[in-house]
Amino acid sequence: MAKFDETPIIQDPAKAGILAPPPIREHATAAMRCWPGKAKDHKAIDLPEERVPDWQQKAIAKLGELLEKNKALRVYMDICVRCGACADKCQYYLGTGDPQNMPVARAELLRQVFRRYYTLGGRLFPDLSHAAEFDEEMLEKWYIYFYQCSECRRCSVFCPYGIDTAEITMAAREIMSSIGVATKYVTEVVAKVYERGNNLGIPPLAWIDNCEFLEEDVEEEEGISLRFPVDEQGADVLLVPPSADNFANVDTMIGYAKLFHLLGIRWTTSTYCNEGGNFGLFLNYYNLKKVNKRIIDAARMLGVKTIIWGECGHAWRAGVLTPTLNGPMDMFDPPYPYHISQFIVDMLRKGALDGKIDKSANDDYLVTYHDPCNPARSSQLIEEPREVLRASCNRFVEMPADTIREKTFCCGAGGGLLTDEVMPIRMAGGKPRAMAVKHVGANYLATPCAICKAQLPEVMSYWDVPVQVGGVIDLLANALKL
């Protein structure tokens, strides 16, 4: 973990309620910003290599373009009454106390610019209309605070007008990227996808080599002969996991292999696109669409029957948009995006796993479940992972109702925030989830998201919550009788 001030942003977390807003600490996070993107990465993903000279005019024009194309965005600009219903719903406000991290205050940074250039009152009477110029100071605020938002949409659940604040963050990032302003972490990851096929920049030969290593390791450790096939033509299934599953969350990767092996399903990964994750979602629509298209292209090249998305939250949020982004999926079965949890539930309901699961194998664990923001709120993948857990474990407990399902808290590092320079923001943002886990006393926290699996162990350690973090399929695999 990167070094930073070890004093918790909220003092005495043991006495703080899970949902209690902290004392206000003005400007506690205003100096924390993501590192800017590099010219070479900008070039690789079709962004200006540096901030364009006429950035103000181009940014204002881009805002106008988005308002024209996205009618919902225009509505969101107009209908907010600043009631504050969202104020204490954001994990970053709850964790930092910075009033600018209230969703309404963050969104107001874009609304002020909208009013200045796209309303009559803002053009004639900017002060009376709460309008503001898009100048250097405003751009700096945009860069800081729209990258202290994980696009998690929790605030939107509580908005009485149904305003999707994530759409506002996405619009601001789209505008900034159009003028050459973006973060190093997000742009570097997208560039790696185009160069190597995955977010980690793993070369194809390294992917193949690690799959072979996993085969040898499982046989040596468990005495089971499993295959981790790569680029296998005509397979039944193309699995698109997050690349972290093959190098960090290997229990999850082994879980996929055990499941397919038990079911007798011929599966494969692809060196062209072995990554389900889509950081274009955190940058702009152009790259969101282009990154997602690689999955469809890989499936067609290999001639597979079915595409299954692995345990990655933002991969799945982008994945459910596939028919809109990249056209019909009629050549696949099913002809729509298909998540690994949905697949497992289908197998459970068909009886394909009857008598093949020993739930007692997980009796050492008191398991709770973290709903990743993107599957839960954006994609309604809520009950399927729970059904898998109940089929795999005897001891499963839910966290408090106002912290799960559609009301789940972000892990604190979604939306392109999983980067060390904003570690204090990440730890502060993760506090509500840590307190909810501590509340139920679980010793295993299951989640189907690679970002969550990277962030939550750090968060739990920081807030002194002794719990193991792993995948949903990890527990199923542990209970399978092979």
Structural description of this entry:
With 482 residues, this protein is mainly alpha-helical. It folds into 3 domains: 48-181, Fumarate Reductase Iron-sulfur Protein, Chain B, domain 2; 186-338, Glutathione S-transferase Yfyf (Class Pi), Chain A, domain 2, CATH 1.20.1050; 359-479, 3-Layer(aba) Sandwich (Rossmann fold). It has helices at residues 39-44, 55-69, 71-79, 91-96, 103-118, 120-124, 136-145, 154-158, 165-178, 184-196, 204-222, 244-247, 250-263, 285-302, 313-319, 322-326, 340-350, 373-378, 383-392, 423-429, 431-440, 450-462, 472-479; strands spanning 237-240, 267-268, 306-309, 367-369, 444-446, 468-470. The strands form 2 sheets. A 3-stranded parallel sheet has the order 2-1-3. It has a 3-stranded parallel sheet with strand order 4-5-6, with helices on both faces. Helix 22 (450-462) links the parallel strand 5 and strand 6. The longest helix is centred in the middle third of the chain and has 19 residues, at 204-222. Mean pLDDT is 92; it is low at 1-16 and 21-26.
Calculate the mean pLDDT score and round it.
92
- What are the segments in which pLDDT stays under 50 over at least 5 consecutive residues? 1-16, 21-26
Specify the overall morphology: globular
Number of DSSP E strands: 6
Q: Span from first to last CA?
A: 38 Å
How many strands, which pairing sense, and closed or not: the largest β-sheet?
Answer: 3 strands, parallel
- Strand residues, percent: under 5%
Count of helix runs: 23
Counting helices, strands and paired strands, the structural category is: mainly alpha
CATH architectural name of the largest domain: Up-down Bundle
Helix content: 40-55%
Number of domains: 3
| SSE run | HHHHHHHHHHHEHHEHEHHHEHHHHEHEH
Radius of gyration: 22 Å
CATH class of the largest domain: Mainly Alpha
